[in-house]
Design brief:
Structural class: alpha+beta
Largest sheet: 3 strands, mixed
Order of helices and strands: HEHEEEHEEHEEHHEHHEEEE
Oligomer: single chain
Number of helices: 8
């Protein structure tokens, strides 16, 4: 993040107000941060991802993620005309150091960043026997490691493979949307380090957030898949292959799936 002198002068008073809460490990309790005023999510713009691995390295450095484990990672998909439904997917070391050069020209290649979807009604929160996994009032799925038993029920329950047991702490770990940062007015480490803006932290309760303009675009027509899917996600992907749009506002939740063509027009809309 580039901070001008003027920007620093703006941030410093805010940090000063929140500092004792930050030191106490409860930044969300600071008087200048109100949980009920936010509902966090992330938008992934697939065509912008270049597979550089900056996000993976930044996440590891920011959150002290052990080697061989990932809170976020990047996958490369190779789709050919003869095998559209079963693409080749690789993710060497989570894409942390990038990807090998392409050896086959046929088909289409693209990168997909992955992270915890911060689902509403998430399976991980439902199976935790002690309530160590929970949803914060501002919409982030978190793990209270003081209460975690290390039973790994949540790891098994996550349908996206986004959790792991920390090899040293023996507790569940996962993406927190850099909760210690976003509650202080910063963005996530992965968003900050992305050179193309492929990742965007969004606040669904902020009427001025660009996410609302995106949701009005034709390529983001969301079908209500509540009856069929059951999982409501707050991490969304847009791009060549599929767009997942999720939001929870005004007391209700919806989860939508729309396939888009390369020109951004809807290629498919699912209504049941």
């Amino acid at each position: 993040m580039n901070l001008s002198r003027r920007r620093i002068l703006v941030l410093l008073p805010t940090a000063a107000i929140a500092w004792k809460f930050v030191k106490a490990g409860t930044p969300e309790a600071a008087p200048n941060y109100t949980m009920s005023e936010h509902w966090w999510g992330m938008l992934i713009d697939i065509p912008k991802c270049i597979g550089c691995g900056n996000c993976v390295r930044a996440c590891q450095a920011e959150n002290d993620v052990p080697d061989g484990f990932f809170r976020t990672w990047v996958e490369r998909y190779h789709v050919t005309d003869v095998n559209m439904t079963n693409p080749e997917v690789i993710s060497p070391d989570g894409g942390k150091e990038g990807f090998p050069a392409v050896t086959e020209d046929a088909g289409k290649y693209f990168f997909v960043p992955k992270l915890c979807n911060h689902c509403a009604d998430s399976p991980c929160t439902q199976v935790c026997p002690v309530g160590a996994t929970f949803v914060s009032p501002d919409g982030v799925v978190l793990v209270d490691q003081k209460y975690c038993l290390g039973c790994a029920y949540c790891v098994q329950a996550c349908p996206y493979g986004c959790r792991y047991l920390h090899p040293e702490k023996r507790v569940a770990d996962k993406c927190t949307l850099c909760y210690h940062r976003i509650t202080k007015g910063l963005t996530t480490a992965c968003c900050e380090s992305c050179p193309t803006g492929a990742r965007r932290l969004v606040d669904l309760k902020n009427p001025n957030d660009p996410i609302h303009a995106f949701l009005k675009r034709p390529c983001a027509q969301a079908a209500d898949c509540h009856r069929r899917q059951g999982l409501l996600q707050r991490a969304g992907w847009i791009g060549e292959m599929k767009a997942v749009v999720s939001f929870q506002l005004s007391g209700f939740s919806r989860w939508g799936l729309a396939l888009t063509a390369s020109n951004g027009d809807p290629a498919l809309r699912t209504d049941n």
